[in-house]
DNA sequence: TATATTAGTGATCAATCAATAACTAATTTT
DNA sequence: AAAATTAGTTATTGATTGATCACTAATATA
């Protein structure tokens, strides 16, 4: 026994968790399913993540980290900033759809520490985007950021709920 | 035994469910907790709702029904329509906060038939508000409705996540 | 007053699942 | 090549919980 040690186990489990959580939600996802997708036994998951909750938090954190990075990479003049941001977001939703779905899933998980990860993620996005809007000299930056966030979230939802007419 | 029959049991259970679901989310809510809040035994719940899921759907449906009704009652000229709608929504979130919370909860429950209730609810809100915007002669009605919905949902979330700065 | 119906409960079960414990095999180190 | 460490597994369990079943008490009806 003892299959040859493959690449980074923790990373593989995180990625498998991300996929399954994004598809089935937090509560319908079992650690057995994650383990199966990662090609390991169920208990081995707990060698890398103390609890299922901790694993979910790590995955959700990655999803927020990625979107923050994407937005930070955008540099353009005030006339095209919003459009460029939207484009960055659209790229993300095709390159990493699971992470977008996970953010939606995370929005309404009532577990306190998961809520906290969502809170921090949204706060960070807001702050970063606001800074960019301001330094580009966009008027009413606060209001525009809220609208930008709001439309982004509605877009996620319309994707998650399979309800495209929400965003016409 | 057999306590005196109180008012409408089904209604009481629905209301109790609404409260507990709104507070704890779909999965963390047990039928025992709902029964306790309704002042009956746990199995009796199933005399009125075949499954926990069916009870949740009924509660969620009520929440969407109420918001649709609220918006339909708004009548004013195009210059004040959006503001009046926002006001109607704000009234609702103080008079029926549980129903607002339940809508957020419902957004990311992956169970197919619950998702369907959310879909229908959002579609109905969108259609109704769009009709009102159009007949008031608001320009870019489609776009304005999306923005209106988006900001409404963001507002729900900022309330649910206890993250007021999201809506500054 | 017998009978049927309605309202409700206690006991229990079958399934699910996160997490632990105890173990084995492979690899690395000395 | 022994010892120690790392990688991984199998077996199991303890708790939870939706749902069913069999029953009792109250009320209405004839």
TrEMBL record, chains A, B:
TM segments? Answer: none
Q: Which SUPFAM superfamilies match?
A: Homeodomain-like
Query: Which species does this protein come from?
Result: Sporolactobacillus laevolacticus DSM 442
Residue ranges of DNA binding: 30-49
Keywords carried by this UniProt record: DNA-binding, Transcription, Transcription regulation
Kindly provide the name given to this protein in its UniProt entry.
Transcriptional regulator
| Superkingdom field | Bacteria
Gene3D superfamilies for this protein: Tetracycline Repressor, domain 2
Question: GO MF annotations for this entry?
Answer: DNA-binding transcription factor activity; transcription cis-regulatory region binding
User: Where is the organism placed in the taxonomic lineage, from the top?
Assistant: Bacteria, Bacillati, Bacillota, Bacilli, Bacillales
Query: Residue limits of the HTH tetR-type domain?
Result: 7-67
């Amino acid at each position: 026994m003892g299959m040859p040690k493959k690449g980074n186990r923790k990373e593989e489990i995180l990625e498998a968790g991300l996929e399954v959580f994004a598809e089935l939600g937090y509560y319908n996802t079992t650690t057995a399913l994650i383990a199966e997708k990662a090609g390991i036994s169920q208990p081995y998951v707990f060698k890398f993540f103390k609890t299922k909750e901790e694993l979910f938090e790590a995955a959700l954190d990655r999803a927020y980290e990625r979107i923050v990075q994407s937005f930070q990479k955008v540099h353009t003049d005030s006339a095209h900033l919003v459009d460029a941001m939207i484009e960055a977001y659209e790229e993300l939703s095709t390159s990493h759809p699971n992470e977008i779905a996970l953010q939606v899933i995370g929005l309404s998980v009532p577990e306190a520490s998961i809520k906290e990860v969502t809170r921090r993620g949204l706060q960070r996005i807001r702050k970063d985007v606001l800074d960019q809007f301001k330094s580009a000299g966009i008027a009413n930056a606060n209001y525009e950021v809220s609208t930008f966030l709001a439309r982004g979230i509605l877009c996620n939802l319309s994707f998650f709920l399979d309800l495209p007419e929400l965003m016409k």
